[in-house]
Target: PGG domain-containing protein
Amino acid sequence: MERHPELIKGVDKEGSTIVHSWIKSDKEWLFKFILERKWKDQFVKLVDVKDYNYQNNPFHVAATTTHKATNQIVPLLVEAYKKNKLIWSVDDIDKLPWFEKNKENEGPLHLALHNKREDLGLYILSLLRDYEIMDELLDYYEPEHSTLFLAIQNNCSEVAKFILGKLDKRSRTKYLKDSSTGWNILHLATSLTDEEFGTWLVNEAPEFITEQDNNNQSPWDTAYETAIRAFIDHNPRAFRYLCIEKKDSSLHHIKLTSSIDCEDFLKIPYMKDLINLQDSQGVTPLHKTIQDNDLFLTETLLSIDKINYDIKDDEDNSAIDLLVQKCADNQAWEEMCQRIGFNPRIKTSYFQRRTNLLEVRNSLFVVAALLATITFTAGFTLPGGLNQESGEALLAKKVAFLVFLMSNTLDMCTSMLVLICLVWSMVQDSSNSLLLIDRSMVLLLVAFYSTILAFMTGVYVVIYPKVLWAAIIIIIMCSLIGVSANRTLLYKVLLIPSPKKKQNQRDPMYLLELGKAFPCCVGSSSQKVE
Model:
């Protein structure tokens, strides 16, 4: 410094001076050393210099540091500035470096609160001159409520108490309330971890307890929701069983303000198990959110793979029916459905919207191609054979043969149509692809019925003149298979319990192996308890 004193005034490419750099370290002795030497005046002139990028002066930098030496360094700079600049006492607040704003409209006080440097924040507030009022400082930092809100959000209770203690209760409302959202300081109090501080805020401003924000939520409502959330988090499994038992859930009633809040709420353990729970009127959470015009929760629920939007309530309305009507009446709902790729107007019979279409398409391709191959071959290997001279079918005038020919042709056409639908589904959006694949399943069932009919009539026409009883048995067997292709009937047949299973259900030893009690044991155990 003796040889190159001009370096004191140097700045780097970002506009930072040596004061910016030194204050990031915990070397208090550096500041004491230079403030006691002949270069003091040059050094002090750098205290209010701002860098190029963020317009931060050394006090802004000090507020972002984590070392404790800052608490000693900042007072050294303040006192040196006061001694060097004798007219500092008549400067406005915006001229004092410890109150100045940076590019982000933040003062050193705000940065100290962001970094939970409450001790530094209190010191900066103590630098207010006797004739200056707290209102003037809060008005300087726009919006006016930002400083107090920041102190509360970061649990800087002493700073918040200091600010509130300096405000006139008759004119402090604009500092305690965010006019853009309607939130007041008691809305913030519900998320505090310091119970004593939260209680103090309620006692300090009780008039705000029932005042609602722009979403009609009061601090009382927010506190109630926070308590419910704590109750759920305490034992989510027990809460799930309680909801199932009472046929009601928090998803039927909750009203959140953003999609992020909805996603976070559904991350609660076992909460997703309740997304299809019906209440006493058969209404699911998805029914309720659509009826309540809750766009955020509806979008979140529709994005869940396990959601069932085809469940009908007691009035025979499904959630998808309500959504179609809502989209027709409200453009915002239509845009939401487009955003998530969900078309409520598409009605499907076999596949849900969350189905893995690639796997289904590949499976249907194989089945349809196999049926097309079989029917193509059957078209040239006709029952009864061909006339060797003319090439005409020998049984062409038989009614059964004509039925065989028509059903085989129908089988061929529907199989090819399935393949065409599947090919086009590869170049459509997800909604149209789903519709094409679902309709392919309908056509494939027609092809199955046609295959059975073709086989049945083809066999019948060649054997009924010789063995009628065999032809009749074949017709009966094929007819039963055709009838059982109906999905509902097939489920009922497959769910019929076997005689062995019925016997096991009455067998006490079998029940004991499953860990189930039976009447004699229940009675004996009851007597023992008594």
